[in-house]
Amino acid sequence: MKKIYYLFIVLSSFNALAQKAEQAELRVYYNYVHITDTNFKDKPRIENMLLVVGKNASVYTSFDQINKETEMKKMLEEQIKEQAGSNNMKINLSSAGFKPVTRIDHYYFVNESKFYVKERLMNNYLIEQPVSVFNWSFSTDTTSIGGILCQKATANFKGRNWTVWFAPDLPFNTGPWKFNGLPGLVLQAYDDKKEVQFLLTSIEKVVATPQEATSEISEKLTGISILGMGTKTDYLGTEIKLPDDAIKTTQKDFDRLKQAQKDDPMGFMKTQMAGSGMGGDFKMTSTSKTVTTTKGPVLNNPIELTAH
After folding, report:
1. Residue 120: which CATH number?
2. Angle at alpha carbon of residue 124, lines to 134 and 279, rounded to 5°
3. Does residue 107 sit within a domain?
4. Within 10 Å of residue 301's Cβ, how many Cβ atoms?
């Protein structure tokens, strides 16, 4: 029964989402700092994030995850090449050295007022959600972030009192995570307890070729380094669009799928691979030599404290 359900999700849910591609204009990099466990306030989760911005669209993702997937893809390609022609392919993907990363991406299309989250369970699953509504209060306070003039705004959202600094000179109605509805790009955001923070690290202009990766905006960011990116992924390309291989589903069905993976990880992997046309013996291994059961941070302080 589990196999039938897995394959039903994979084989019946693929669909071409007719979302027009948007030209990317900026790549904005942030440090995401989150005290996920209030018992370990000195050990916040820190992650490098990426916001790709266009005139009417944006996508927010984990830059650490991009690097992780690039490394995993390289590992996979090398093993497939080595075992070319084998009828019993064995794939070993080591998790050594990889820290936890955010596995949910956020797509926002301003003109259509559409918001999607993408999460990966062997395949990319896409769930449409309502666009978050922030009742912003504007302040006359201003500051400079990386040489860019920013204005202050505040709002209460899902149990947190947020302060954001947005740049009127960068007229994009978006920001990291779910932030939207401001007349300028959000460059910094934090809650009043500083338990969750989004801190700008760099901005670069999207250009046709890496050799042209300079801009007036980049030059304004005094004291903030411009990252030189060579990795080729959809997120580092010149367009913002929903993934071509997206499987559109509902939150309810996706939660069922995650539970199925939790109940039977190997069975889930095999049936998902079979549904994608790949066979063989797939085994996950770790090169870690020690296993610890020491109690560590848990998620008792989510970014959204309330449902409404």
Report:
1. 2.50.20
2. 165
3. yes
4. 18
